[in-house]
Amino acid sequence: MNKSSDYEPTIGIECHVQLKTATKLFSATDNDARDSEPNSCVSEIDFALPGMLPMLNHEAIVLAARAGKALNAKIANVSRFDRKHYFYPDLPKGYQTTQMYQPIILAGFVELPSGVKVRIHHAHLEEDAGKLTHHGDHSLVDLNRAGTPLIEIVSEPDIHSAHDAKLYAQELQMLMKYADVSYANLFHGNMRFDVNVSVARKGATELGLRCEVKNLNSFRSVERAAEYEIARQIDILESGETVKQETRGWHDADQKTFSQRSKEDTQDYRYMPDADIPPVILTDDEIAEMQSGMRKMPHEYRENWRELNLDESVVETVLQDEQLAESMDAIFAKGFPQPKTEIVAGMADFVGEISIDDYDKLVKRIFNWFASIAWESLDMSRLDGRIGPRWLLSLSKLAADGKLSSTGAKEIFVAGFSEEFTPGKMPEDFAKEKNLIQNSNEDEIAKIVDEVLADPASQKPLADIRGGNDKAIGFLVGQIMKKSQGKANPGLAQKLIRERL
Fold it and tell me: Which tens digit of pLDDT belongs to each residue from 142-171?
């Protein structure tokens, strides 16, 4: 018996999310240092020079309130900042300003696409530290990141598989993007995950000792690190030893975790209230104002689209871009005709096939204006010279009327975003150029069907169908398509064959 089946893993995740404020949490320094020289986006406050006092960035409070709503959490009417003491070269003050005792975001939850609900214990505001780069026997420090506003989202230990840990991380990223509180770019470090893993025998009343794997910056590493830790801890327990509670790192090249230091306890940080920063006091009306105007969240789109019976992978691909999701939702709300699945699948295929650089340059620009079109004033006769609801509705109508196959609809959709597109060029123009218009005239197709069924070569497939081998109908449809030079509507052809059988 597989020994892993005797154990249940338990995972909790702490996620650090950089907020997209213009300036840092406690200074007026530029908060975007991506293309800047090291130590160039730093002020006297970030350097912690004597006599420098922090000034709280109000926009960070607003973004935290919006993040809280995305997390289905209540925002505290009173929150306070504390000092967390530890000494690293990338933390000039010798303490981090954070919220230990009264965080701004209280309990909430995140629901995964699978329906698994992960509770949020809290999320607190804090400043980021700088960055150390290690070179052999020495390290270099860059303080550009010091003072960057973060929210740290702390989950309850509700995750029980490495796969769900990855799904939770992915859902968090989407929530932060949809709430428009962070760029949420993992490559640039806008989100980082600390994964706490423990294992215990099934049925145990207490959780096992946990190990924390720090600073994971990809969904793949979240899943792989959790998988590795689960297996490592099971091996330790199976050998009769005890798991040591510690902080571990992740070595991506070796796909292994490694020990960094023993796990600190709260008292080791000597938390104390920060006397330089007054409490943050918010009324319910102020919180409501901060949270106003937020777009729908991913779970709301999933619910809206449930009746469309779209493939889950298609839905999740569309949801990767919040403007794309907003645009599609608006089209569906206008009574987008069937078949909806083919058009959205075509869009998902298109988005999934291009590089992230092309995506930033092309697709976002297209859908920025696409989402801004006034849906209430659709004019089917107006040529606006660009892809919009009128163009997509026209494409969908061709598919719904049987003039286009689902494959043809996808091909034309992609062509609409290619160099082939010129202002005023409609889907039907593309379809005619590409010879994709199907013949859905039942009388004409019926004649071809009768000719094919009368052909001696069709007798064996007909006998197979009557004998229960339904797949044989594909041969007959293929013969009809061949005789019609690819013009016959295959769905109608199959319908007519079955009527004659």
Answer: 999 999 999 999 999 999 999 999 999 999
Structure tokens at 329: 């939702």
CB-based burial label for 426 (10 Å; 0-12, 13-18, 19+) = middle
pLDDT value, residue 450: 86
Q: Tell me how far apart the alpha carbons of residues 326 and 304 are, in angstroms, rounded to a whole number.
A: 11
Contact 93, 85 (CB under 8 A): no
Which tokens go with 332? 């569906």
State mean pLDDT over 401-424.
71
Q: Which residue has the tokens 């330790």?
A: 236
Q: What is the DSSP string of 403-455?
A: SS-HHHHHHHHHHTTSTT--TT--HHHHHHHTT---B--HHHHHHHHHHHHHS
Q: Binning pLDDT at 50, 70 and 90, where does residue 442 land?
A: confident
Between these two residues, 175 and 304, which has the higher pLDDT value? 175
Distance CA 227, CA 234 (A): 11
Distance from C-alpha of 273 to C-alpha of 2, rounded to nearest angstrom: 50
Q: What are φ and ψ of residue 145, in 5° steps?
A: -85, -15
Around Cβ 419, how many Cβ atoms within 10 Å?
Answer: 6
**pTM for the whole structure:** 0.72
* % the chain with pLDDT above 70: 81
Give the residue-averaged pLDDT of 393-405: 71
Mapping DSSP to helix (H, G, I), strand (E, B) and coil, where does residue 133 land?
strand
At residue 166, the pLDDT reads 96
CB 121 within 8 A of CB 107: yes
Closest CA to 54 of 280, 339, 324, 263: 280
Total count of residues recorded for the chain: 501
**Rounded distance, CA 478 to CA 495, Å?**
14
